[in-house]
Amino acid sequence: MHHSFQNFCGNLFTQHGSMGNPMSHSFMSGHFFNWSIFLMISLVIFLVIRHRNKQPASKETALASLDRQFANGEISKEEYLERKNLIKD
Q1: Sorted alphabetically, which keywords does the UniProt record give (predicted)?
Q2: Which of 1, 56, 65, 81 keeps 20 to 30 A from 24, CA to CA?
């Protein structure tokens, strides 16, 4: 079991490089480099999706709030149309 764990983690938890030579050890070697690239790409994808999904939702919420204010008689028709045009821009 220890051997398979070491293969999975690669050089991340060992003191030696890929060939077992202590002199070939580097910070960005083996699986650590692969995992760091994977995590960076995943983070970028996550942030892009989160940003894309966030913008339309806030506009819909603003329109729903504006519709509610107009329906309750809190704002006039002119004010409603003006604000609606501002939100859509």
Answers
A1: Membrane, Transmembrane, Transmembrane helix
A2: 1
